[in-house]
TrEMBL record:
Keywords: Membrane, Transmembrane, Transmembrane helix. The keyword Cytoplasm does not apply. One of its GO terms (cellular component) is membrane. This is DUF1295 domain-containing protein. InterPro entries: UstE-like. The chain crosses the membrane at residues 12-34, 41-62, 113-132, 144-165.
């Protein structure tokens, strides 16, 4: 069965509400972070804000779109967001401020809190809302899912597997004292230097495919996965991390051998 339409009016009406949901999560996190003087908490809130948007969009779209598609997109988004938030919370437990936020806030022209609110929390809230536009719009397609949506679910599954397996492999590697100071180049990390970022890429393009059953809406909301792709490859993801790692012993050789983003078999080491 093909799709039969898209409820543009209802979709537009829910946009301010989903924006408020994303903003609410980030503002609540800001209040806690200021009290604890620990702005790395915003990284935990990133995934939770996507969950909030998905849940609100699902609730508001009741009787407006296909129930199967609505539930599937909401569940996939929440699973991704919760897994990411729990992982980041566990990884950061017991640590102080993230050097990225320390450097950013050291440039504050006045109040650090006001600067953090403007440059971190409000910005991230806007990005959450923008990136999640395909999730929001998928709730309003009238008609059953097609094989395109099934392909989206498969791509999402590939992405979440890369994220979860890559994060687990890295955590196990770093937990071994014998690996202190060494570059992780095993498992998925031997195929791509950023399996977690590649996984995010697959997740959000997979979710976008759910809206491709209605091409006009896909054309409007494709900015979501495009922005996420930019963040992962050129913004705060891959590019920022690689600048931080550039001077680490062995990293130059690792860059020569292993793909920067899309997985491929590793090259042999020089002289190997």
């Amino acid at each position: 069965m093909t799709t039969t339409g898209f409820d543009w009016g209802s979709f537009a009406a829910q946009l301010p509400v989903t924006a408020a949901a994303a903003l609410g999560v980030l503002l609540a996190t800001f209040a806690v972070a200021v009290r604890k003087d620990l702005h790395r908490l915003v990284d935990v809130a990133w995934g939770l804000a996507f969950c909030a948007v998905a849940v609100v969009a699902y609730a508001l779209s009741a009787s407006q779109g296909d129930d199967g598609r609505r539930l599937c997109v909401a569940v996939l988004t929440v699973v991704w967001g919760l897994r990411l938030s729990v992982h980041i919370a566990r990884r950061g437990r017991g640590h102080g401020e993230d050097p990225r936020y320390e450097r950013l806030l050291s440039k504050a022209p006045g109040s650090r809190a006001a600067y953090a609110l403007r440059m971190v929390y409000l910005l991230q809230g806007a990005l959450v809302w923008l990136v999640s536009l395909p999730v929001q719009s998928a709730m309003y397609i009238k008609g059953a899912m097609t094989p395109v949506a099934a392909a989206g679910a498969a791509l999402w599954l590939l992405g979440i597997a890369f994220e979860a397996v890559g994060d687990r492999q890295l955590a196990r590697f770093k937990s071994d004292p014998a690996h202190r100071g060494r570059i992780m180049d095993r498992g998925l990390w031997s195929w791509t230097r950023h399996p977690n970022y590649f996984g995010d890429f697959c997740v959000w393009w997979g979710l976008f495919l759910f809206i491709c059953d209605w091409p006009p809406a896909a054309a409007v909301t494709v900015i979501g996965p495009l922005v996420m792709s930019y963040l992962l490859t050129r913004g705060s993801g891959k590019a920022l991390l690689e600048r931080h790692m550039a001077d680490r012993p062995g990293y130059a050789d690792y860059r020569e051998r292993v793909s920067g983003f899309f997985p491929r078999p590793p090259r042999k080491a020089a002289g190997g």
